[in-house]
Amino acid sequence: MIGILIVAHGALGESLIHCASHVMGSRPLNLQQLGVTIHDDPVAILPQARELVQQLDQGDGVLILTDIYGATPTNITCRLLEPGRVEGIAGVNLPMLVRALTYRDEPLATVVEKALSGGHDGIINTTMEVCNVATGYRDH
């Protein structure tokens, strides 16, 4: 099973885990988060992040999801990457996390691909037409 670590600003990671737990019916195993605040020194957080990656890696690898490319969480993650063993994706959203959790028994490369497609495909311009198709609601 692929381990998943969310490295994000503040409580975003825990909030995403809480929401994913709601969607999936229970808190998924082998899923952790590391919240980064403005007061945190990235060099000081790096050992904690490394320890979380080691805890999450059961031999199949770890996917690290971060919030904003170029920000501190992604910069920390860049120092943890090991192609084929520890992969990273920036721009985490709930559809991405749920997709990664759904496919985490597949190889790491597949989980990365599915998470990317889930994140991308989960972004939809919610127009009246889209809402009508999705819900059948037409009271406008």
Can you offer a commentary on this structure?
With about 140 residues, the chain is of the alpha/beta class. It has a single domain (about 5-135), classed as Rossmann fold, CATH 3.40.50.510. Helix content is about 45%, strand content about 15%. The chain has a four-stranded parallel beta sheet, with helices on both faces. Helix 3 links the parallel strand 3 (about 60-65) and strand 4 (about 85-90). Helix 2 (about 40-55) crosses helix 3 and helix 4 packs antiparallel against helix 5. It is globular, with a radius of gyration of 16 Å. This is PTS fructose transporter subunit IIA. It comes from Sulfurimicrobium lacus. Keywords: Cytoplasm, Kinase, Phosphotransferase system, Sugar transport, Transferase, Transport.
**CATH architecture designation:** 3-Layer(aba) Sandwich
Report the order of strands and helices. EHEHEHEHHH
Structural class, from secondary structure content?
A: alpha/beta
The CATH superfamily title: Phosphotransferase system, mannose-type IIA component
Strand order within the widest sheet? 2-1-3-4
Write down how many β-strands occur, each being a DSSP E stretch of 2 or more residues: 4
Terminus-to-terminus distance: 47 Å
